[in-house]
Write a structure and sequence with these properties.
Layout (H helix, E strand, L loop, with lengths): L2 E7 L4 E7 L5 H8 L5 H8 L3 H9 L3 E3 L9 H10 L5 E3 L6 H10 L5 E3 L8 H4 L9 E3 L10 H6 L5
Parallel strand pairs: 3-4, 4-5, 5-6
Antiparallel strand pairs: 1-2
Helix pairs in contact: 1-3, 2-3, 4-5
Length: about 160
């Protein structure tokens, strides 16, 4: 059991109030866990219990998947995206395709940065779905099959 202790002092004596941390609202636990930035720390926190596992991975702000080919299997990829609904940044493996883009659009509503460097299988048609999203940055260097950015620049007024 994990306890959260608060030391309060008054004129006469000190009092330690302890509560079980899992009695805190889930939103507060998730907020606390959101300060973990390294995957190693998030993984350790996720091992505490099933609640922390769910909350720790739900608040991961960035997904760096460039080196993880095994994640591209569509069912695995979709499950990963479902487990991190608040991710604001994603970097895809070079072999990602339009199907991955559609899953990202479906599950990552808070996405602000889409890194598609070297993603040669993604086409204009795949990116059109992001025309109404508030993306801040899109990285497309050496993404050879993307040639028309008019729809993206015209629809994403927040793009820098």
């Amino acid at each position: 059991m994990y306890f959260y202790c608060i030391l309060t002092e008054n004129i006469n004596h000190s009092v330690v109030n302890c509560i079980m941390i899992n009695t805190l609202p889930e939103e507060l636990i998730a907020y606390i866990l959101s300060f973990l930035k390294k995957y190693k720390d998030i993984g350790r926190a996720a091992q505490v219990c099933s609640l922390w596992n769910r909350l720790a991975w739900a608040v991961v702000p960035e997904l760096h998947l460039r080196k993880f080919l095994s994640v591209l299997e569509l069912s695995v990829f979709e499950n990963l995206l479902k487990s991190v609904p608040y991710a604001s940044y994603i970097q895809l493996h070079p072999e990602a395709c339009n199907s991955h883009i559609h899953l990202i659009h479906k599950h990552l509503n808070h996405l602000r940065v889409l890194n598609l460097r070297r993603c040669r299988e993604i086409t204009n048609e795949g990116l059109e779905i992001f025309g109404n999203r508030a993306l801040r940055k899109v990285y497309l260097s050496t993404s050879w099959n993307i040639s028309n950015l008019d729809f993206l620049a015209g629809s994403c007024h927040t793009l820098k």
